[in-house]
Design goal:
The chain contains 5 helices and 2 strands. By secondary structure, it is mostly helical.
Length: 92
């Protein structure tokens, strides 16, 4: 079985059903488009919140299973706009 079909099987057999049962599978994007949550969304939220709180990046790497810190920072961290505004306001 191909890796892609394993992933799709996981999504249909477990992920979608679990999130739907929790009432969190579907959401509306900022642009009004309806979408569904995927595992990548959770990784993005985790990495972003970790960074926003200034926690140790080595530990985040271990938890997320990355060998390089840049993967989590470059791929998964998407700062919340409020955090960016706070940082900008720190400039003198």
């Amino acid at each position: 079985m191909r890796a892609g079909s394993d992933y799709n099987g996981f999504l249909s057999a477990y992920w979608d059903k679990t999130l739907d049962d929790l009432g969190i599978l579907h959401y509306v994007r900022e642009n009004g488009e309806e979408s569904i949550h995927r595992p990548h969304d959770m990784r993005v939220t985790f990495a972003t919140r970790w960074a926003d709180q200034g926690l140790n990046e080595v530990y985040r790497q271990k938890i997320q299973g990355h060998s390089s810190g840049s993967v989590g920072i470059d791929v998964y961290t998407q700062p919340f706009i409020e955090s960016l505004v706070i940082e900008l306001n720190k400039l003198k």
